[in-house]
Amino acid sequence: RDHKAAKRFFKKALRSFHVSMPRVITVDKNPAYPVAIEELKKEKKMLVGIQIRRIKYLNNIVEQDHRFIKKRVRSMLGLKSFRTATYILSGIEVMHMLKKKQVYREVKSAQSRKEFIHQLFGLAS
Q1: Are residues 52 and 77 in the same domain?
Q2: How far apart are the C-alpha atoms of 107 and 116, rounded to whole Å?
């Protein structure tokens, strides 16, 4: 958790082929992260316009919200392809959103929920 390790981590994360250059980097309150990011900016390995957001418990909120996905997926024997993983995880998230009442107010009855799900996944009703 020193600035050298943080610098190595950011270099590796930004070098990944599936990661585009971020606008904002969210880190916890560890003092090593801002030092490492400033060094990378001076070395021109990171864009100067990238902002740092230092929020101590933001990652915990994200992990808590994904706990239900971990609980469902752990019992499966694996998601065989990326396509099936996408379908299964998006379905689990939609059902959890319905349970938490995070969807439109018009989705109240079972029939309207079914139509909403079909609309999300592009299915014919």
Answers
A1: no
A2: 7
**Looking at residues 66-71, what average pLDDT do you find?**
75
- 3-state SS of 33-77 is HHHHHHHHHHCCCCCCCCEEEECCCHHHHHHHHCHHHHHHHHCCC
Lookup: tokens for 119: 């609309």
Which of 24, 41, 62 lies at the terminal end of a domain, its last residue?
62
Backbone angles phi, psi at 17, to 5 degrees: -70, -25
d(CA 117, CA 100): 15
Q: Which two tokens stand for residue 21?
A: 């250059």
Domain tally, the chain: 2
Q: Which domain holds residue 108?
A: 66-121
Cβ neighbours for 9, distance < 8 A, ≥ 6 positions apart: 36
**Do 58 and 71 reside in the same domain of the chain?**
no
Residues 77-92 pLDDT 10s? 777 788 888 888 878 8
- Residue 103, C-beta contacts closer than 8 angstroms, at least 6 positions apart: 97, 116
Taking 70 as the threshold, does the pLDDT of residue 58 lie above it? no
